[in-house]
Amino acid sequence: MSLIVQKYGGTSVGSIERIQHVASRVKQATDQGHSLVVVVSAMSGETDRLLGLAKAIQAVPAPRELDVLLSTGEQVTIALLSMALEAIGCPARSYTGAQVHMLTDSAHNKARIRDIDAARVRADLDAGRVVVVAGFQGVDEQGDITTLGRGGSDTSAVAMAAALKADECQIYTDVDGVYTTDPRIEPHARKLERITFEEMLEMASLGSKVLQIRAVEFAGKYRVPLRVLSSFTEGAGTLITFEDDTVEDAQIAGIAFARDEAKLTILGVPDQPGIAHRILGPVSNANIEVDMIVQNVAADQRTTDFTFTVHRNDYDKAMAILHDTCAGLNAREVLGDPAIVKISLVGVGMRSHAGIASRMFEALAVEGINIRMISTSEIKISVVVDEKYLELGVRSLHKAFGLDQAGEGKTT
Ligand code: ADP
Ligand code: ASP
Ligand code: MG
Fold first, then answer.
1. What stretch(es) of the chain map to CATH 3.40.1160.10?
2. Which residues of the chain have pLDDT under 50?
3. Nearest to residue 233, comparing CAs of 3, 12, 5, 78?
4. Number of continuous H segments (helices) and E segments (strands) in the chain
5. What is the atom index within ligand 1 of the atom nearest the CA of 228?
6. Taking the model in full, what pTM does it have?
7. Digit-coded pLDDT (tens) for 242-263
8. Which CATH architecture has domain 3-174?
């Protein structure tokens, strides 16, 4: 008998029928003798609907009030799932984040989990009940409701599994595992049986939203056995492993991409110590996260150009700041492009294989895709390209690296 934490995402609990289907799956596991904690998201579309209501009143709603509003989505699902379980003879009890003391910091809308008091959950499990917990939400030290950022129910589930020392944390979603890339973009994407924790961390941080990055970080820190599976079909899904034992000699585990990036350039800044700080200091003071940064070598020995990327939502704000900096530094000009995307190859196999970057650039060149920026680390290579090349870029790389080999198409 094991203790299992299961998490069901929005699509999996998107209607009464689907909630009943989840209930029958949960009951199946309890009938096999397992103890179950089930973390659920809001019904699909609900968080966006609530956000829309808030924005109809205020363009930038107060973060504290937004959390009070957004957390209601998950509260609906926990109650309905508990009822659905009781209705089929499976004793269950629902809890909000606050009720299970999912203690977070006070960073509303992007709070981090600090601690969970699992005593109440354990008591229910010992009494033979299924515990249904609202994902995505917590409570801070003042007792205020917080939320964990979009996709945060993944993190609630992993944190719950860590606190309970569960045997496995199973993330049930609308695909049957982690694929070589988003199967919505590349129909030939291949399901991975295993992916290393390190690769999953990169994939998530480079834009693959199948798992929230903080959930992967949490799983790594507390070594939570983590699996991604489908709530609609049977199958073993994808296991996130902690060993560095890549299957075969695969060089690339997968391709991640991030839409909604934007690029800003300041031309003709003096080539002196302290300039990067003068440019990026005000940007980070405005709480704008900067991703890639490139500074050209000064061609004329006196001035240089400086380019960086931000999330597209922050583009206008970053542009205004950069114009001020331009005037202050007597720089030549500010340029911007809000229609770019980032595509990344990820794989621990890169450590032992040379020439991956040049193969990547060749594959993009064959399609006439211009690379605007490049950044590399030990296990990833990212390029920034024009938004219109997102699909073509992902598909051509998928093919060039043999990820959609014949006969190994999508397994559902
Ligand atoms: P949930 O609501 O269950 O949390 P999400 O929409 O957050 O589901 O995440 C699942 C989605 O992630 C899939 O439908 C898929 O389009 C997307 N996705 C992106 N990259 C990948 C990948 N590499 N493998 C599988 N799914 C991916
Ligand atoms: N309901 C939240 C969202 O849509 C959290 C989650 O689903 O993980 O982002
Ligand atoms: Mg999700």
1. 3-174
2. 406-412
3. 12
4. 11, 18
5. 25
6. 0.92
7. 876 655 566 899 999 999 999 9
8. 3-Layer(aba) Sandwich (3.40)
